[in-house]
Amino acid sequence: MASVLITGASKGIGRATAAEFARRGHRVIATARDPRTLAGLRVDRRLTLDVTDPETIARAVREAGQVDVLVSNAGEIFYAAVEATPPAAFARLLDLNTIGALRVAQAVLPGMRARGHGRLLFVSSVAGRIAQPRQGAYAATKWALEALVEALVIEAGPLGIEAALLEPGAVSSGALDHVTTYTLPGDPYAHLRTQGGARARQMITPEEVAAGIADAAQAPQLPLRIPLGRTAREVLAARRAAPDDRPFIPGESTPVPAADAN
Question: Considering the entire predicted model, what is its pTM?
Answer without folding.
Answer: 0.93
